[in-house]
Amino acid sequence: MDMEAALSTAAGAARLILVIGNGMNDTQRINDRTVPRGTSWALVLMAVCVPAWAQNAADPSYFTQKVEPILTSRCLGCHNQKLSLASFSMASRESLIKGGKRGPEVVPGKPAESRLIDVVKHTGDLRMPPGKKLPDAEIAILESWVAAGAAWGSSTTAQPPPKPNHWSFVAPQRPELPVVKNAAWTRTPVDRFILARLEKEGIAPAAEAQRATLIRRVYLDLTGLLPTPEEISAFEKDTRPDAWERVVDQLLASPHYGERWGRHWLDLARYADSDGGSRDEPRQIWRYRDWVINALNADKPFDQFVIEQLAGDLLPNATRDQLVATGFHRNAMLQIEAGTDREQYRTEAVFDRVDTTGTVFLGLSVGCARCHDHKFDPISHREYYSLFAFFNSSDDWGNDRPRFQISPSNLYEVHRPLLYYSTDEEVARRDDLMARMNAIIESLDKTGQDAAAAADTKQKREELKTLQKQLPNLEWTMIMQELPQPRETHILLSGDYLQKGEAVQPGVPAFLNALPTVEKPNRLDFAKWLTSPANPLLARVTVNRIWQQYFGRGIVETENDFGTQGTPPTHPELLDWLATEFVRSGWSEKAIHRLILTSAVYRQSSNERPELSLADPRNLLLARQARIRLDAEIVRDSALVASGMLVPHVGGPSVFPPQPAKAMDASQVAKTWTTSVGEDRYRRGIYTFFWRITPNPALVVFDAPSSMTTCTRRDRSNTPLQALALLNQTTFHEFAQGFARRLLQDVPSSSEQRLLRAFQLTTARAPSPPELQKVRAFLNAERDSLSAQPDEVQQLVGPAAPPNLDKVELAVWTSLARALFNTDEFITRE
């Protein structure tokens, strides 16, 4: 800047100070320009300090040099001619002036009346771009341009970028492994990315955890079961260089791996054993749960795993297993209360499938576009219903196909289509009986009111009861099935199923990889598009969720939102490397598990490090492992394993372990909980029958999800109710009794050895001297107290106490078991 310009600017600044000081009550002259009352201070500042800009804002070159770059980088990714989010485009002057649903976006010459200026200032309810406000200099440029008449450049249309440039919308590229100083610490490529970031921040990784901690950690992470003291001892003594890798491979081959990781997937699939809604009727869909477990155990390639769940029924010569897999989207809730509008709740089920698909496989909140264009991500209202069209032709309970009337005798009709596990003759017989019952119900609706009609009604009701008793009890599972002719899909205005807008065809969001050209694309075409390596999101979202289970937090913390409002990845290169490795491995989940589990970063100690309290208080850089509260089902499983009472059978119908007598009272329709006996009483938590409205309290108190919608990350709380459940809930008290019996039978003579065994079974370690002292004192106090209270002894040991065991001693060790189950260490993976 030359001296004359500097002096001019200084004089203008002095003039501005005077204007601000006196108050701008009327039109002012600043630097020979008329500044009307109400003009923003940003524009006044432009007039004072950069007079050349303000004077040239009406020139087309001003638009080309200063305005168009802002529109291209900040706005046109969503508001272009193709997407037109909020129903307007910023690709031309005419479309800006016309505006969209909210009216004109620009009023030439009047920035104070132009919505564009209002939203970029972030002063009102609507703020654009979403998230981060534009720099003041860019806002001033836009305001100056509008004030000068919003002149356009030499071209009539601004060109948007080909696709939004948000990091997750760009296909991952495999990065080079970073160079690190302490290469000796690394074990797998995963470590290189973590260590490079730590070294950049001047932070050293944590030491490796003790061997007992490591084996307990990996057993809980991979199978959800505690290791036995013998397995712990064997690993501690194994000096082979690949001892750890052998343990990992053994657990990946365990049938219990599928149960542990199947539970994670069932959260995503919103699996439950009942319909939800006011009636919350039971359903048969446990075979889908078993399909998930078996598919994971077999390491079914993830792309095939997804395709079979979304469209297994459309595969050529689909097998029974592939049909069972489509239960993924039959897990949607059903509302079948009397007077229910079938089409309304069929539509709600389709909404659920679209939203779940977006969250689970794309990591995007596509449901936000159900009523209007997505406010933050480039998904338009129209594109939402193009996705909706893929799921809109499934053969669900609706008004477009005849169905038996709903009655207590044929509620199962709403669950169709079904895959039966009975003979064709049994199915045909049931359908014949149902048709006859339906005819009687229809005739009853038409019966008159005279005496003859009353007698006829009584006879028909008796006949109905007789037919109902003859109905065979068939086994079935819910599956997806397409209608012979697809339904026509319309945009639903404001998401209302009664307000149909224009018709749309199946399609995918334009900002993602293109859907292959198919005349009439269906769910199978969609599933293949979704699992294409060209999709930038599926692999990233999936490996991020796997990472989350091992470290308590994903590389992208908002694991259900990879859109513009989600958190950026803490280690973007690692995320892309894992995503590309996932595809290169043939979509093998077990390969990704092995990579992470054999890394040095996974094997770190989880102990607190005071020096990290300021440098990395949330452990985002992973300079140590995370301590993670066990899932609800695994809390139960751990107590079962410690007590020696676990029945490890894999698969089968859901079971009914003990629960409080009043637990079912919240149901609007009377239901009973018939407690399982025999082996079913001691099955893993994944097999507990899950009512959506009245779930098992022992699961709810430890934050099991409701299964109403997809759950991508469980809450983890720490409440007094959890401690009370571990102390007093029937199930845990029974496990404590079993634990005490096991201790007395395994170690009949030595109290010290029995204490050591108790700690090994629950915490995988020996007690410290202070702990031993406290526990001895507790045992002695309990003996003294219980010796004089036979009634309390009987209550503690229960009716199953073996006659050869001293009841007082059994009661004492039952009390200790309850205390050990209640320790933070027992219900935490370290």
Can you characterise this structure?
The protein is mostly helical. Helix content is 46%, strand content 3%. It is built from 32 helices and eight strands. It has helices at residues 3-22, 41-49, 51-56, 60-74, 93-98, 115-120, 136-147, 189-201, 211-222, 229-237, 243-252, 255-268, 286-297, 302-311, 320-325, 342-362, 381-391, 424-446, 451-470, 523-530, 538-551, 572-584, 589-597, 612-615, 632-643, 697-700, 720-728, 730-746, 751-763, 769-786, 790-797, 807-821, and strands at 28-30, 33-35, 418-420, 476-478, 489-492, 500-504, 628-629, 828-829. A two-stranded antiparallel sheet has the order 1-2. Strands 3-4 form a two-stranded antiparallel ribbon. A two-stranded antiparallel ribbon has the order 5-6. A hairpin with a 7-residue loop joins strand 5 and strand 6 (500-504). Helix 21 packs across helix 23 (589-597) and helix 31 (790-797) crosses helix 32. The longest helix is centred in the middle third of the chain and has 23 residues, at 424-446. It is globular and about 100 Å long. Residues 1-27, 29-33, 49-55 and 402-411 have low confidence and may be disordered.
